[in-house]
Amino acid sequence: MIDPDSIIKAITPHTKAIVPTQLNGRVADMGRILDIAQEYGLQIYEDSAQALGAKYKDQCAGSFGLGGCISFYPAKTLGCFGDGGIVLTNDDNIYNAVKLMRDHGREEDGNVSIWGFNSRLDNLQAAILDFFFQNYDKAVNRRRSAADLYHEELQDINELNLPPATNSNNDHFDIFQNYEVEAERRDELKEYLSSKGVGTLIQWGGKAVHEFRDLGFNQSLPFTEKIMRNSLMLPLNMTVTDDEIKYICKCVRDFYND
Fold first, then answer.
1. What's the first-to-final CA gap in the chain, in angstroms?
2. What is the pLDDT, as a whole number, of residue 258?
3. pTM of structure
4. What digits encode the pLDDT tens for the residues 162-204?
């Protein structure tokens, strides 16, 4: 998660806003971030793409700042069969601007007043989301249960750094969009698990955004790069069973005990 201390170090006279990412279904330390924003006169916009239903001190991701976004991409905890998403805001100006932007900048009377996009959620995707949303609480509970089982089975492996357990901090309610660990010898572990029939995922091919040099970046961020080189997603979805999770954990344990 975004480090509040690092936010303070990064603020310059040109800074206008803080954009925390609520990653893998967990909410950042929004209490401190709100304090920093107030102290320095900054706005907050949340990337809550992976965090529908996640909470910090009983407040939902996407509702802390002027605006937040949630993704409905098929891989998300609530996903449709194509692209989709929502913007959350209580600000009338943002609401009106986004409403125009999603539909070519077109007003209700048909006049096009700003440059926009074709980003409307079609009826079919909306119906799919409505169907899945009816059981969303059950889906979140199952993900949290699966995460608990992973934690129980893997917590004593020194070579792994696990996400926080579900009840480790009462300020946080995590929905576990993903179960991502930091693992020593990550690439070897991934290959070993594959040989045992276990699929895993390395986000973005193991690169952070600033490492895509064709985009014009030249920064060096050693801590971020270390995390990206060690991070691995283990299977967590609505079809994986407890027995399969125990098998996955046995394979992980066998790898590090060799």
1. 32
2. 82
3. 0.91
4. 999 999 999 999 999 999 999 999 999 999 999 999 999 999 8
Pick from 55, 218, 69: which is nearest to 140 by CA? 55
Q: What is the pLDDT of residues 88-133, one digit of tens each?
A: 999 999 999 999 999 999 999 999 999 999 998 999 999 999 999 9
Contact criterion met (CB below 8 Å) for 36 and 64: no
Q: Which CATH class is domain 4-133?
A: alpha beta
Give me the CATH topology for the region 136-257: Aspartate Aminotransferase, domain 1 (3.90.1150)
Strand-pairing partners, residue 4, are none
What is the token pair recorded at 183?
């693992």
Q: Residues 9-15: contacts with CB within 8 Å, 24+ apart?
A: 11/40, 11/42, 15/40, 15/42
CATH 3.40.640.10 residue spans of the chain: 4-133
18: Cβ contacts below 8 Å, ≥ 6 apart: 2, 7, 33, 36, 37, 42, 43, 44, 45, 65
Task: Delimit the CATH 3.90.1150.10 region(s) of the chain.
Answer: 136-257
User: Following CA atoms 69, 115, 217, 30 in sequence, which dihedral angle do they give, to the nearest 10 degrees?
Assistant: -20
Cβ neighbors of 134 (< 8 A, separation 6 or more) are none
Tell me the per-residue pLDDT of 128-152, one tens digit each, with 9 for 90 and over: 999 999 999 999 999 999 999 999 9
